[in-house]
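Record copied across here:
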Amino acid sequence: SYSAAWPLPLAGWGKPLHRQKPPNPTPPKFNTCKADSLKCGLTLRTRSLIVSYFTPDEKLRLSFEPFKPGDPPIGYMDVSRTQLSIARFSGGITVQGRHYVYFPEHDELWRDDILKMVHGWRRTDALAKELPALPPQVQGELL
């Protein structure tokens, strides 16, 4: 036997390594009790239907943005299940010198500069929809 200070058995201690069971292939089950699923006032069914704060088109557009190597992540998903869950209480968090805003409806954190960029895209897209449509151009005779 080994002490509790050693989280993993070393070779030769306890069971031989070749006789250990392989890891369980089924995914881990999360706590699905009623109190956990209703934290944001949503049931499990409606929570699973909510995709993200950004639309798929915006995420695709973000994938083509040239970010610097070594930049911190642009966002985090399922925040309430990670160490970043403290952001739920203050509405945001600072990680690696970058501020992230928490969206409780989607349980996500998004970086401030990314939010500013996407909101600018949304604004220009809305303005483009409001512009009157130009009439189709008719090719005229030169002479």
Notes: Helices lie at 34-37, 44-49, 56-63, 87-90, 112-130. Residues 1-20, 27-48 have pLDDT under 50 and may be disordered. The chain is about 30% helix and 10% strand. Residues 78 and 107 are 5 Å apart (CA to CA).
